[in-house]
Amino acid sequence: MHEPNVVKLLERLKPSDVVLDVWGWACPFNRAQWVIDAGPFETRGYYRTFGGAESQGGDRERFSAETWVRQDICGADGWPWIGGTAKPGTSWRGPGSAGSLLV
Known about the structure:
Layout (H helix, E strand, L loop, with lengths): L2 H10 L7 E3 L11 E4 L30 E3 L20 E2 L7 E2 L2
Parallel strand pairs: 1-2, 2-3
Antiparallel strand pairs: 4-5
């Protein structure tokens, strides 16, 4: 993500917002509690291998191996939370959330 947008997004998010990072494997957004990507959790942060940022969005990862969904986001399976449909900027319900912001 373009770094000025990282700053803007972090300013906009409330502490209670649940964030889903789509295609986060190469440079995960640490503020996200959920990540969906075809790449595995264990090898996240690929950009660091050629001098790029390992991650963005804070120093602490809020996602974990349990909240990292390894799946092709364009595949026919759909996304596990919302039946395959997502619209940025709309509310969705992630596991354990009362109401979340999808960005």
